[in-house]
User: Fold this.
Amino acid sequence: MAASLALGLANTAFTTTLTVDRSKAFTRPSSLKTRICCVTWDPEGILGPPQSGHIARREFQKRLEKDAGAREDFERQVQEEKQRRRALRESRVIPDTPGELIEYFLDTEAREIEFEIARLRPRLNKEFFAHLQFELGQLRFAVSKTQAIEDRLIELETLQKALLEGTEAYDKLQADMVTAKANLTKILTSKDVKATLLDMVEQNELNRSLLALLDENISNANKGNQVQAAAFMEKLRGAVLKYMTV
Assistant:
């Protein structure tokens, strides 16, 4: 039964954390700090990047569990945010040239950078980065540097760093998910799951990407009302997590 499950690749997320108001575009502040990192399962990015304040989050979660009204209000806000972001994504016109693509990313909301990197990954090629580097060179070696030139230089340097790290993280995640799919197939087709898991522990093949893929399959099984399949995958996920932390 389990081996017949569809092994869809899980959506992945990598986060661009910027010291900028999340409601504004990527651009304009005079000082930005950029960090790209792998995060846990959050396919729509609604929850944003990892935040501090574990106790506060737990209290909020407990309140949602107890207060049906608060939970309903929270779910409504999540859906509204999803719709807003979907409408924004669909309304944007993908530019044709590297120069226009630079401006496109500069006008992108900080929390949308990861989505745009994934969507436009084929366009973020040597030609694009060469054009970006050329413009940076012109700004760095300008004869007379005005404040506007200095601001533009900071913007492009920050964008370059974010896109280089973002594409690297995206490519790594895609490779990890392909490997995770092969590993999950190995587990599902194994005659001795426990022995297979132990062997995979020795090979360091149990990781977060495999858990994310299991989460995707569990979600799909639940949506399809495949109760037994979902229960099996939940049990398998627990075993993987157990061996990961041994």
Remarks:
- The radius of gyration is 22 Å.
- Confidence is low (pLDDT under 50) at residues 1-13, 15-24, 27-44.
- DSSP finds nine helices and two strands in the chain.
- The chain has one domain: 1-246.
